[in-house]
From TrEMBL:
<comment type="similarity">
    <text>Belongs to the leucine-binding protein family.</text>
</comment>
<keyword id="KW-0029">Amino-acid transport</keyword>
<dbReference type="GO" id="GO:0006865">
    <property type="term" value="P:amino acid transport"/>
</dbReference>
<dbReference type="InterPro" id="IPR028082">
    <property type="entry name" value="Peripla_BP_I"/>
</dbReference>
<dbReference type="InterPro" id="IPR028081">
    <property type="entry name" value="Leu-bd"/>
</dbReference>
<keyword id="KW-0813">Transport</keyword>
<feature type="signal peptide">
    <location>
        <begin position="1"/>
        <end position="27"/>
    </location>
</feature>
<feature type="domain" description="Leucine-binding protein">
    <location>
        <begin position="31"/>
        <end position="367"/>
    </location>
</feature>
<dbReference type="Pfam" id="PF13458">
    <property type="entry name" value="Peripla_BP_6"/>
</dbReference>
<keyword id="KW-0732">Signal</keyword>
<dbReference type="InterPro" id="IPR051010">
    <property type="entry name" value="BCAA_transport"/>
</dbReference>
<protein>
    <submittedName>
        <fullName>Branched-chain amino acid transport system substrate-binding protein</fullName>
    </submittedName>
</protein>
<dbReference type="InterPro" id="IPR000709">
    <property type="entry name" value="Leu_Ile_Val-bd"/>
</dbReference>
Length: 387
């Protein structure tokens, strides 16, 4: 179990906030409590570690600039290790004992889904950093998310394939929460792009060799490309086995591998791999007039100044977007009142984050469209823009 709190200097005045009637008095020396549960250790630590570092770094900056609506922010964090049962336990503690005003976190789809019933019942805003479309589809009143969905990843990949004349595709998917969800989404949207799934294999998170599954896929008649829905070490193993078997068709990964760690794990086998990802990975390669460039360059330089060159990943960017959207919502509401913040989050429009331009609504608690994704290819051990 791991718990970390970040506290700033507190003001000494008292304020009363009202929304649609008389609200209880809130002392300005009472901080806004931000709860978080992230996979800082364990197999999903490449997600949770940069997410926590980002929250800590930018909460300190916000507090140094005076906080939000005259109050300082306090971060209360628990490390789930990627375990859904721990996530549920910690979320209950955040809601019932720590009495947080918002929850930012959920590194994975599985841990996020485990806590949704709790936050919905408590009526506390929850902004997830996980990828599964099931998090926000169907819409849940108190649940939002920052990363592109697995359904969007399928669409972006198939869009690229369609442009290259590819139609016969093999899937090799992880059976974890994200891989399972993305596989289902790819199967569902494939016909919209005239894509036929001609092979469909899976692997468990604990598998260390996928040669058998990939051999079946390679022997499929008419195969033109392979897609690997998954995250963690599995996609790196798939990529290495793919190269070992001498495939002569392209390999596509998901945004679940959008960090330098994947390239390090897959090594030379990663050359030529394509994937949809956020603009943050190619911040310095974006056109000067790109609306996202100032945001992603600012986040990248700030993060790398603190944690080292080359350390930035899109996963920390998800946390940045979540915190900054919460900040914008509190400022718009003039209060940290959960109901007021929930309404303000739903009304966010024209917000430029590391994931793209966000336009939320009552029917859309993500607010991104397919144009927010960039298609990348790994060349020379680095990310390059395809478009």
């Amino acid at each position: 179990m791991f718990k970390r709190m970040t506290k700033g200097l507190l003001a000494a005045t008292v304020a009363v906030f009202a929304l649609g009637g008389t609200a209880p008095a809130v002392a300005q020396d009472d901080p806004i409590r931000i709860g978080s549960f992230l996979a800082v250790t364990g197999p999903a630590s490449f997600l949770g570690d940069p997410e926590l570092k980002t929250l800590e770094m930018y909460i300190a900056r916000i507090n140094g600039a005076g906080g939000l609506v005259g109050r300082q922010l306090e971060l209360i964090h628990y490390d789930t290790g990627g375990d859904a049962n721990k996530a549920r336990t910690f979320a209950k503690r955040l809601l019932e004992e720590d009495e947080v005003d918002v929850i930012l976190g959920g590194s994975t789809t599985g841990t996020t889904m485990a806590v949704i019933p709790l936050v919905e019942r408590a009526e506390i805003p929850f902004i997830s950093f996980a990828g599964g479309v099931v998090i926000i589809d169907p819409v849940k009143p108190w649940v939002f998310k920052t990363p592109h969905t697995d359904r969007m990843a399928c669409g972006k990949i198939f869009e690229d394939m369609q442009a290259r004349g590819i139609s016969n595709v093999g899937l090799i998917s992880g059976t974890g929460g994200f891989g399972k969800s993305m596989r289902a989404q790819c199967l569902e949207v494939a016909p919209e792009y005239d894509i036929e799934i001609v092979a469909d294999e899976t692997y468990a998170p604990s598998d260390t060799d996928m040669v058998a599954q990939l051999t079946k896929i390679k022997n499929t008649e008419g195969l033109e490309a392979v897609v690997n829905p998954g995250f963690g070490q599995g996609p790196a193993i798939v990529t290495k086995n793919f190269a070992q078997l001498g495939f002569e068709v392209p390999l596509y990964q998901s945004h679940g591998v959008a960090s330098k760690k994947f390239i390090e794990l897959a090594g030379e086998a990663a050359e030529g791999v394509r994937l949809p990802a956020a603009a943050l990975l190619v911040a310095e390669k974006l056109p000067m007039d790109d609306l996202q460039r100032p945001i992603v360059m600012g986040y990248m330089t700030t993060y790398e100044a603190e944690y080292g060159a080359g350390s930035v990943s899109t996963f920390g960017g998800h946390a940045y977007d979540g915190l900054m959207m919460y900040k914008a919502a509190v400022e718009a509401a003039g209060s940290a009142d959960p109901a007021a913040v929930r309404e303000a989050l739903e009304g966010i429009s024209g917000f430029i984050g590391t994931a793209g331009e966000v336009n939320m609504s009552a029917d859309d608690h993500l607010g991104l469209d397919l144009s927010a994704f960039r298609m990348l290819e790994i060349q020379g051990g680095d990310w390059t823009l395809v478009e």
